[in-house]
């Protein structure tokens, strides 16, 4: 098991600046992930970038949002 801090350290060692706070936000779905970040994380974790995406959504009863999908940035609220 790789901790958030350990993943952040591996990212920094590979030249990709991503701190533990950003890792935590990505993990819980609060922060969006760019295509460049997906590629860098895949390289650091030695997996294909497609591994971050599920072929079929998994829906938990307590959380109806499909897991494994990247969240889009929220639309700006109209005033």
What attributes does this structure have?
single chain; 79 residues; alpha+beta; 434 Repressor (Amino-terminal Domain); two-stranded antiparallel ribbon; 3 helices; 37% helix; globular
Notes on the structure:
The chain contains three helices and two strands; from the N terminus they run H-H-H-E-E. It is of the alpha+beta class and 79 residues long. It has a single domain (4-67), classed as 434 Repressor (Amino-terminal Domain). It has a two-stranded antiparallel sheet with strand order 1-2. The chain is globular, with a radius of gyration of 14 Å.
How would you spell out the order of helices and strands?
Answer: HHHEE
Output the CATH class name. Answer: Mainly Alpha
Q: How many strands appear in the DSSP assignment?
A: 2
Any idea of the CATH topology?
Answer: 434 Repressor (Amino-terminal Domain)
Structurally, how many domains make up the residues? 1
> Which structural class should the secondary elements be placed in?
alpha+beta
Would you summarize the structure shown here?
With about 80 residues, this protein is an alpha+beta fold.
Structural topology:
Blueprint lengths: L3 H10 L6 H8 L7 H11 L12 E3 L2 E5 L12
Helix pairs in contact: 1-2
